[in-house]
Every structure is written in C-alpha cells, then in structure tokens.
Structure to design on (421 residues):
C-alpha cells in the first residue's frame, strides 16, 4: 500500500512526499496518475511539471502551468528563460514576452493608462529625460528636449538640439543637414489656402529661389534688395542707388500708363529712350517725331523728298513742289531757305528721316574745309556749307547757318553750332 506522509521536524523542514514514488523528494503533490504537478528539485527550481519516472527526484521545472482539465490540453503556461518571462498558451498563440531589461513583444496591441520613464515631473504620459530628452504630456516643465510634445498651450511640437524655446508652437533646431518635408499645405498662423500660407512677417537671411531655375531669385542682404532673373541682375536697390539692368544685358525697360503701353522705354540694345515710342532711333525719341541726338542736336522727323537716299550733314530746305506735308528737300546753292541738317544717311526718298534744326550738328562742308571758330554759310554747292568770315556782309547774312567748333580738312563733316538767320 502506498504511503503518503507529512513529515515535520526533519532536516528538510516540512515535507509532503510519496514513500513509493519519491522517497527522497523534498516536496511533491501527485495527481490522478499524471505524476507530481507541483514540485521542487531542491536546487531552487520550483514549478508544475511531471516527475521523473521510477521514483527519482523531481526534475528542474521550466513551466508554471495552469489548466482547467485533467490532461493539460487547455493549459496556460508561464515560462522562464534567460532574461525573459513568456506568457503563452499551449498552442503558442498570443505569446507575450517580457525580455527584462530589453523590451516588450506582443502579437496584440498593448494599451497602457500611463507610462513614465526617467525623472521628469508633471503629468506627462511618456517622458524620458536625462540621457535622451524625450517628453510627451500636458505640463512638463523641463522643455530642453530634442523632441517634446505638450498640450498645455505653451509648447506645440519642439525639436531642439541645445536650447529652450518654451513659447514655440513648432521649433526646429537641427545642427546639420536634416530635412523636414510636409505632404500638404502649411499654414503659419492661418488655415493654408496656398502650399505655404503665412499670416504675418517672413524673415530671410539672403536668398529666395525659384525651384526650377537656380539663376532666378530675390536677394536680401543688409541695406540691399536685388532681383536676378536668368543670371542677370535686373533690379538692385541700396540706400544710395536704384540700379536697373546691372549686368548691362540687352534687356528693355518699359513703363506703361493706363492709355500708353510704351509710355517710357529704355532700349536695352543701345540705351535709347523712347517716349510713347516702341523703337527709338535717336538717344531721346518722343513719339518718333522729336528728340535729341547723341551730340546735342534738337531733331525733328520729316519726310525725305530729296529724290534719293539721305546724305548725313546735308543742308535741307522746306519741300513745296507737290502736296506732301512735313517734307524736306536738298537746299539749293547759296540758299537762304536752309532750316536744318540731315542727321542720318541712307533713308529712302518718301520715308521719314531725322533733321537737326537746333543745337549741335555735323555739317557737310564743301572742298574748302573749315577751322574752329569759322562762320559757315550755304555754299555754291547744293546741300553743302562753306566758310565765310567777312563780317557785316548783308548779302550773306541770310545764308548763315552757324559756327564751326572743330576743324576739318577738305570736304567732309564738321561739327557746328547751328543758328539760322
């Protein structure tokens, strides 16, 4: 007959044992022929597990098993391994591993009412301070963290490497090369209507670039603003100068009014200025009818009726042979009708050409040439001028056209100040 005993006072303390199966076992509970369910091997191992066959001492248990039936088919077990405690069922479904001190693994989604790590104060849900400076919560006082999220109205999201910004809604202070990218529109102080919408001032250290063209940008530096388009500095401002077309490119500058498109044009190719004129042909051109030449002559535009192409410096008189308005002809020999000097050569008969009527002009001299200070008159050669330095000659008074201000040898152009009598 099997003997079950409880021994008290033994060197082994209190012992429940089975004389037949485990006469030397320190502690055993037997159940329904399944072997001992709860046992210790005497070496610090304690657990629910079958015993060794043939009455040997209990083996080192690896499991604590809880079951609701006799054959342990619906068991739940708690297993201990190196640095781990595993909670699992017999089919190994839904295991939870607590890997002390490393991590937590679960096939389900764990939920925590609150988790605090570190030495932070307040009511933060998650806070890791001292070494890594990560905080999240509602009222965390120390906001020197690289990442911090609160909802108490003082800090929105803070990314900061080495400074406190306790009033920032979004503060980023990366030390080298990190990028921030948003998939949608960004609004600062406003719900965004555009990709970037700012309700307030924007500060730039220097450049604002066009993404598709790195040679097109705005330039901001102290006391300077510039606009560069396609690599050309088109517009620059500093306290002493407003500079348009700084690179001297072939770029027209145009100002329009409400009724005149070419109200003011500076032509990029030659610097000519047009007033109500899209293509000025002299340095200052008003409506292609009046203007100033590059050497200081006041010019008007009239129709050429000389019978051929214009000759620069030629003397001209009013044209009256046929019904052509605003026209000129070549002055006759010794003409007293000279009113102007042709400014440009090669203009065809019937086309408009510039004629200098006052100021300075280059005058076509006949074969005698001229010297500085000479008085010049209409010569015996049609369309040409000659020197006449005889004072008081009434007969030549109405032939006079001006005075030379440079010397020329023989026939050719001589610069003169005009004054027609």
């Amino acid at each position: 007959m099997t003997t079950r005993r409880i021994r008290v006072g033994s060197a082994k303390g209190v012992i429940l044992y089975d004389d037949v199966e485990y006469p030397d076992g320190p502690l055993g509970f037997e159940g329904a022929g399944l072997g001992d369910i709860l046992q210790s091997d005497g070496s610090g191992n304690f657990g629910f597990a079958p015993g060794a066959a043939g009455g040997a001492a209990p083996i080192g248990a690896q499991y604590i098993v809880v079951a609701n039936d006799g054959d342990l088919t619906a068991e739940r077990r708690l297993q201990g391994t190196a640095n781990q405690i595993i909670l699992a069922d017999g089919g190994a479904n839904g295991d939870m591993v607590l890997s002390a001190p490393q991590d937590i693994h679960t096939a389900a989604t764990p939920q925590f009412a609150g988790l605090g790590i570190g030495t932070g104060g307040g009511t933060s849900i998650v806070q890791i301070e001292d070494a890594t400076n990560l905080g999240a919560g509602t009222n965390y006082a120390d906001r020197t963290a690289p990442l911090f999220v609160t909802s108490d109205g003082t800090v929105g999201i803070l990314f900061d490497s080495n400074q406190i910004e306790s009033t920032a809604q979004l503060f980023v202070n990366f030390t080298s090369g990190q990028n921030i990218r948003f998939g949608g529109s960004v609004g600062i102080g406003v719900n965004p209507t555009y990709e970037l919408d700012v309700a307030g001032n924007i500060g730039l250290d220097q450049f604002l670039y066009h993404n598709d063209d790195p040679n097109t940008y705005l330039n901001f530096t102290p006391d300077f603003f510039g606009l560069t388009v396609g690599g050309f500095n088109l517009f620059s401002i500093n306290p002493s100068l407003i500079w348009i077309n700084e690179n001297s490119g072939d770029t027209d500058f145009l100002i329009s009014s409400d009724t005149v498109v070419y109200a003011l044009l500076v032509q990029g190719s030659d610097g000519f200025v047009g007033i109500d004129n899209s293509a000025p042909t002299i340095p200052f051109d008003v409506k292609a009818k009046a203007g100033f030449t590059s050497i200081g002559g006041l010019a008007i535009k009239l129709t050429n009726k000389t019978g051929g192409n214009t000759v620069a410096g030629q003397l001209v008189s009013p044209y009256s042979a046929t019904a052509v308005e605003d026209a000129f002809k070549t002055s006759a020999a010794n003409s007293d009708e000279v009113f102007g000097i042709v400014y440009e050569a090669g203009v065809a008969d019937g086309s408009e050409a510039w004629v200098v009527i006052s100021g300075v002009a280059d005058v076509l001299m006949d074969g005698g040439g001229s010297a500085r200070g000479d008085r010049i008159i209409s010569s015996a050669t049609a369309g040409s001028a000659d020197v006449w330095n005889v004072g008081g000659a009434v007969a030549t008074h109405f032939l006079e056209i001006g005075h030379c201000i440079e010397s020329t040898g023989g026939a050719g152009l001589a610069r003169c100040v005009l004054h027609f009598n």
Notes: The two ends are 162 Å apart (CA to CA). Residues 73 and 90 are 7 Å apart (CA to CA). The first strand starts at residue 4 and ends at 10.
